[in-house]
């Protein structure tokens, strides 16, 4: 099969498209013919060499996978050849306490797909039976690659971690990026008043089309001042931060009393300083959230069928043009998600 291999990480990573042996399935494995694989900022971080811990040498990246079942192991019962499926982000054991409580993305013995085990930047990928979901009829298979990450990730962060309620005000940073575009949609679908923050003026019109109340252009001005002005100095009930370090201070200052901030992305890398007294006197919470469970993936699929969410795959590239996709993402020239199509 054809696969994209990360030979050497770096600011200009060395990538090679190679012919390698198609994986052989074990008893509980499923071989998936990849239809599309989303290009996540996690992949960018590994390519840059910023993220190295636990990464398999000569890794085939890609954890946002949709495709068709090509072969199944002898003990597989959940799917059959020809079924349309989408992957979770982790190869999990299915038996530990985290797996049994719907947190398979944090399996005690898990291995990240496209991180510790080879992922979907290839014609075929081998996945565990419990690491995928069967797609309902009528779902666009190319768009479905985004159901777990970024869409399920955004759903878990907004609903389960931030506990966002209808009528509350939510700020979403990085609103034109792959996580941000879908976090905007999720918060709106949950009934929030959405204020979207972007550093890319050319993306404002497209973000506005998502139905947000206001798009705030972050730059030299501390965008929390705009948030306060738009909320009569009350602040936002929830901030979904997809950017991390670069906008952390403004994001925190945007919070209302009892505000909840959830960090789901880190783009630049860096450290922040925070005064514990400010957290105390706001009665605020700052949480991190990554990953999505099977339940989130299935809920996203249902919300897409209902027309409440729309996957945004703005561009697709063959494996041979992965470096172009990488550069466009580094330069913030993409809207929503880009995907590789083997």
CATH superfamily of the largest domain: Medium-chain alcohol dehydrogenases, catalytic domain
Distance between the termini: 10 Å
Mean pLDDT: 95
Q: What proportion of the residues is helical, as a percent range?
A: 25-40%
The main pleated sheet reads as: 7 strands, mixed
Summarize this structure briefly.
It is built from ten helices and 17 strands.
List keywords for this structure.
Quinone Oxidoreductase, Chain A, domain 1; 17 strands; 10 helices; alpha/beta; 6-stranded parallel sheet; 342 residues; 7-stranded mixed sheet
How would you describe this structure to a colleague?
This protein has helices at 41-48, 97-100, 147-161, 178-189, 204-208, 223-230, 248-253, 276-282, 294-305, 322-330, and strands spanning 2-8, 14-19, 29-38, 64-72, 84-87, 90-91, 111-112, 124-128, 132-134, 169-172, 193-198, 214-217, 236-241, 255-263, 285-288, 313-317, 337-340. Helix 4 links the parallel strand 10 (169-172) and strand 11 (193-198). The strands form 4 sheets. Strands 3, 4, 5, 8, 9, 16 and 17 form a 7-stranded mixed sheet that branches. The longest helix has 15 residues, at 147-161. By secondary structure, it is an alpha/beta fold. The protein has 2 domains: 2-140 and 311-340, Medium-chain alcohol dehydrogenases, catalytic domain (Quinone Oxidoreductase, Chain A, domain 1, Alpha-Beta Complex); 151-288, Medium-chain alcohol dehydrogenases, catalytic domain (Quinone Oxidoreductase, Chain A, domain 1, Alpha-Beta Complex), CATH 3.90.180. The mean pLDDT is 95. The protein is built from 10 helices and 17 strands. Helices cover 25% and strands 26% of the residues.
């Amino acid at each position: 099969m054809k696969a994209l291999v990360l030979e050497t990480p770096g600011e200009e990573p060395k990538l090679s498209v190679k012919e390698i042996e198609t994986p052989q399935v074990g008893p509980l494995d499923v071989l998936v013919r990849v239809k599309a694989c989303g290009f996540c900022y996690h992949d960018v971080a590994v390519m840059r060499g910023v993220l190295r811990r636990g990464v398999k040498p000569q890794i085939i990246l890609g954890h946002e996978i949709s495709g068709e079942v090509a072969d199944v192991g002898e003990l597989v019962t959940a799917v059959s050849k020809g079924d349309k499926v989408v992957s979770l982000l982790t190869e999990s054991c299915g038996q530990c306490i985290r797996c049994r409580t719907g947190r398979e993305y944090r399996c005690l013995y898990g291995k990240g797909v496209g991180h510790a085990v080879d992922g979907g930047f290839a014609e075929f990928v081998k996945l565990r039976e419990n690491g995928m979901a069967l797609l309902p009829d009528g779902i666009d298979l190319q768009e479905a690659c985004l159901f777990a990450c970024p869409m399920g990730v955004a759903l878990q962060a907004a609903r389960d971690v931030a506990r966002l309620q209808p009528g509350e005000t939510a700020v979403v940073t990085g609103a034109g990026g792959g996580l941000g575009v879908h976090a905007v949609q999720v918060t709106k679908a949950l009934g929030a008043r959405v204020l979207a923050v972007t550093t890319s003026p050319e993306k404002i019109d497209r973000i506005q089309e998502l139905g947000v109340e206001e798009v705030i252009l972050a730059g030299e001005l501390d965008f929390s001042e705009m948030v306060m002005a738009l909320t009569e100095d009350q602040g936002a009930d929830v901030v979904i931060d997809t950017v991390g370090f670069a906008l952390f201070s403004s994001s925190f200052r945007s919070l209302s009393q009892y505000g909840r901030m959830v960090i789901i992305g880190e783009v630049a890398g860096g450290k922040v300083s925070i005064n514990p007294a400010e957290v105390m006197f706001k009665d605020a919470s700052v949480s991190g959230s990554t990953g999505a469970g099977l339940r989130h993936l299935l809920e996203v699929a249902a919300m897409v069928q209902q027309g409440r969410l729309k996957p945004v795959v703005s561009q697709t590239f063959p494996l041979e043009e992965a470096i172009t996709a990488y550069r466009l993402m580094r330069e913030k020239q993409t809207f929503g998600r880009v995907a590789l199509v083997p």
